[in-house]
Write a structure and sequence with these properties.
124 residues, globular, mainly alpha
């Protein structure tokens, strides 16, 4: 397993997780975002003025750049499941910590299974 590639995936997952948490915080501060045709433009303008949301967008972009580098070092069939699994665990944990979302026994079991699957895919 390529250590540099794995570190890049971990960094990309952390940045993607942070992006999702920042986007949620920004959307919550903004209020109700609607896809209704008569409200979407105002909503997008409002979100673009929300600093937490914009910071989340920046983190997404930076995470993508790191991911591009990881793609040059690892097989996609290995790297992508690891990225998605780690991101899921980080977002679920952060959602509980920062937004008070409940981590039920079912969610915790699912996260443990995901981490186990990552270990199998990564040959840890």
């Amino acid at each position: 397993m390529n250590t540099t590639g794995m570190l890049l995936i971990a960094l990309s997952a952390i940045m993607t997780g942070a992006a999702n948490l920042l986007l949620r915080a920004g959307v919550l501060k903004f209020g109700d975002f609607s896809l209704a045709a008569n409200r979407i433009i105002d909503g997008l303008i409002g979100l673009s003025l929300q600093p937490l949301f914009m910071l989340g967008m920046l983190f997404y972009g930076l995470a993508a750049i790191v991911w591009f580098s990881a793609l040059s070092k690892l097989e996609l069939s290995i790297g992508y499941p690891i990225l998605v699994g780690l991101t899921f665990v980080l977002v679920a944990s952060g959602s509980s910590l920062f937004f008070g979302e409940v981590l039920s026994a079912q969610k915790l079991l699912g996260m443990a299974m995901i981490l186990g699957g990552i270990a199998v895919i990564a040959h840890v």
